Here is the input.
Amino acid sequence: MKKPSQYIIVSAIACIVVCITEFVTLFIFGAFYPGYDHLKDTMSTLGASVSPVAHEVSLWWVIMGLLLIFFGTGFRKAFSEKGFFARVAAWLIMLYGFGEGIGSGAFKANHIENGLTISLIFHDILGGIGVTAILLLPLIMQKVVTRNENPGFYRMSRIIFITGIITVSLFLFRYLPNENNFLTVYKGLWQRLFMLNTYIYLTTIAVLMIKKDIRQKTSAYFEN
Here is the structure.
């Protein structure tokens, strides 16, 4: 039997590693930030200049972004026969890696009293682009992997989209003027639930890529 495409397999594994490592590293970094609360503080706080682990977190986010862009190119190869929708999905994945990864790492979420820093503005804009891209991904994936091909994944895409909208909406409540409101206080929780939702979905896509590539190579072997 021919070996599966190394590019597709490696890019899929890179995605799985990123999804696991993101949660592990952020909890580790949080332990080195006195007073940091994962339920109440955003992840961007870890990468702000005042954070004792700012450089390490920023470096990790840039690496994460590059690996997700790599994953996006592998995804496009894996589903190349799907044409337009596969290309759109690949770009959405890469936009997420660029916005939430590279953008968040390159531009720190630095706050000043009664104002916004240029770095924070770019951080929020690029992060917003990345979040929007990943929110739209399940809708496009329903065109890439149809209900007839994989009904379980098709239903999952719908659930992931709905859950993503809910968790992002909860996270946006942090802009409410009442800072003592339950929804605003636990902004860190909503953000992490959104990330968990996202990484479960990306990991599932990576696994589908690996299975699809192996299945195609196995089929080609028996046909020959």
Q: What stands out?
A: The chain is about 75% helix and 0% strand. The beta strands are 111-112, 115-116. The chain has a mean pLDDT of 89. The first strand starts at residue 111 and ends at 112.
